[in-house]
Structure formats: structure tokens, C-alpha cells
């Protein structure tokens, strides 16, 4: 298991608001391999985006500071969030996720191409256990553990309003359980096992109940093969919104 970088732990523990967390996190340089990769990608670029000024830094979460529903991904994509500076923005995975969020009334529009495109999330905060784009989309366990203090700080700040959480994929599921425990939710033994649709209600002495829900990741590997369909994703998101008591908004309706 990796040891969290002392500087990142201190910085994360000192923030007092989501806005301050996002600004401080975006300056982190704790993981040399990730720093080198994200900056190389931002310098070399992909030919389709050669006119873009890449973000090339850690990507903070998006969504309101009083979110009732959290969605936990894996890490930013090299030419998605690492390019645009916003989680899931500008890549195929984001295309699927934001279309589903809009369909169930949790996002103002079905697409997200740039940080200034007008997207609004309703009661939802999207974040990840790793905030830098990793080579081959595979952060190491040490990098996950080094980045843990940022997720811990974020969940502490969200704790008063957070009522449900959708976790995208097994990596994120394993990463978030110890963070939830540190924030005050009791993780049952044996620990909940990840699966699409897996669900546990977590409680604690000083925290509101939290519905923890598993969902296959919105990666191209899953969506192109049909392992995760838009209808499957929308059902999970709609159920999570109901658990969070988020009011229904206009959307495209359920898919069959």
C-alpha cells in the first residue's frame, strides 16, 4: 500500500469549502509518474485537438457543494478531462454519462464538450479517487492511496447533504470504502462486494444514512460491448436520485 504524500495530506486537510478544495487540488504534484504523463499529453496533444490549450493538471470534481448524490469515477481521461479541465468532459465515457444524467433530469444538457459549455448538474457531484490522467487509464495502488486525502476531504465537506452514491467500477468501489469509513460511515463485515446494481445502506453515529450503489463504469469497453447500456445506467441513476430525494426534472424519460 502506498503512503499518501505529506504535502497533499496537509493541503487537503486545510480546505474549508468545495471551492477551496478544487482550487488547491488543481495544484497538486504529489505523484511524479502522473505529473510527467499529464504534462506530456498536454504538450504533445492529439492531432484532433492540436488547437486546444490542454488543462494538463489535476482535475477537480464538478457539481454543487451541497450535492445529495455523488458519482465516483476512476480518473480523468488523457484527452478528455486532462484536456478540458472537467471530469468526464470531452470523451466517449462522458458522452454516455451526461446523456444518461440528462435523461433522468440530473443535468441541464445531454452533452459536455468544454468547461464553459453551460452544463449544470442538479444535486449531483462527480468526482474520482484519482484526479490526474494515468497512463493506459490505470493508476497504481500507490497513486490511488496518495490521492485519497483529496477524496476524503471532499466527502467530509459533502457529508451534511450526501444521501446516495453511485460508484462506477470495481477500482473506485475499493478506493471509496476506506474513505467512507474515515468519514464516519460504518462499513459492514464482510465488506460489500462490487457488482452492477449492488446496493448497501451505510450508517454511522454522526452521519446520515448513505445508499451506496455499484454501477459498471461508463468506459468504451463496457458501453461498446453492451455490458452497460444507456437503459441500465439510467435505471441506476434514477434509483440513486430517488434515494437522495432529488426532485424530478424534465428529461427524456426512461429507456426500455
Polypeptide structure, described:
The chain is α/β, with parallel strands linked by helices and 256 residues long. The chain has one domain: Uracil-DNA Glycosylase, subunit E, CATH 3.40.470.10. It is built from nine helices and five strands, in the order H-H-H-E-H-H-E-H-E-H-E-E-H-H. A five-stranded mixed β-sheet has the order 2-1-3-5-4, with helices on both faces. Strand 4 and strand 5 form a beta hairpin. The protein is globular and about 50 Å long. This is Type-5 uracil-DNA glycosylase. Belongs to the uracil-DNA glycosylase (UDG) superfamily. Type 5 (UDGb) family. Keywords: 4Fe-4S, DNA damage, DNA repair, Hydrolase, Iron, Iron-sulfur, Membrane, Metal-binding, Transmembrane, Transmembrane helix. It comes from Jatrophihabitans lederbergiae. InterPro entries: UDG_Type-4/5, UdgB-like, Uracil-DNA_glycosylase-like, Uracil-DNA_glycosylase-like_sf.
Indicate the CATH topology.
Answer: Uracil-DNA Glycosylase, subunit E
Query: On the 0-100 scale, what is the average pLDDT?
Result: 93
* Overall geometry: globular
Can you tell me the number of structural domains? 1
CATH class: Alpha Beta
Q: Label the structural class.
A: alpha/beta
Q: Any idea what the CATH superfamily is called?
A: Uracil-DNA glycosylase-like domain
- What is the number of E strands? 5
First-residue to last-residue Cα separation: 43 Å
Quaternary state reads single chain
Radius of gyration: 17 Å
Largest sheet report:
5 strands, mixed
Percent in strands: 5-15%
